[in-house]
Amino acid sequence: MIHFGPTYAQGVHLPHNHALVISATVAYCDAQHIFVDSGSSVDVLFYKVYQQMELGDIPLEPVDTSSYGFATEVVHLLGQILLPLLLGFEPTQKTKMARFLVVDIPSAYNLNLGRPALNTF
Predict the structure, then answer these.
(1) Which domain of life does the protein's organism represent (predicted)?
(2) Which member of 43, 55, 66, 71 has the greatest number of CB atoms within 10 A?
(3) Of 26, 40, 5, nearest to 96 (Cα)?
(4) Cα dihedral 1, 101, 59, 64 in deg (nearest 10)
(5) How far is 87 from 95, CA to CA, in rounded Å?
(6) Contact status, residue 72 vs residue 87, Cβ threshold 8 Å
(7) Cβ atoms of residues 117 and 98 within 8 Å
(8) DSSP characters for the chain?
């Protein structure tokens, strides 16, 4: 169960239609500004963040396709990577493996979580 208590609503004027932006641990790195997009069929890791995570021992797997409809244009994929994604806090936190497509485009977010990652939890 996902539950947002009163502390999460501090500073938010209700009712609202703000985007759901969370923090999580990805590949043992704390990640802020993660956009939760339940309408997306992919999970996205932006290349700038991939570089900052220093995952040199986990190389990108090649991808022979492009993404359509993402950022309103065709986006070339640099590759994909399978990483542990930890959501929640003790005692209810869980870690699952998530496959992220890596793209080199600017974004206000560090990652986008779509249906594939959300459905594993």
Answers:
(1) Eukaryota
(2) 43
(3) 26
(4) 140
(5) 6
(6) no
(7) yes
(8) -----GGGGTTPPSS-----EEEEEETTEEEEEEEE-TT-SSEEEEHHHHHHTT-TTSPPBP---EEEEETTEEEEEEEEEEEEEEES-TTS-EEEEEEEEEE-S--SSSEEE-HHHHHH-
Instruction: Decide the pairing of beta strands 66-70 and 111-113.
Output: unpaired
Cα–Cα distance measured from residue 44 to residue 15, given in angstroms and rounded to the nearest whole number: 29
* Angle, alpha carbons 71-75-77 (nearest 5°): 130
Given a cut of 80, is residue 6 above it in pLDDT? no
Q: Which residue has the tokens 């991808």?
A: 63
Beta carbons of 83 and 96 less than 8 angstroms apart: no
Retrieve residue 1's tokens: 């169960």
Where do we find the tokens 């936190």? 93
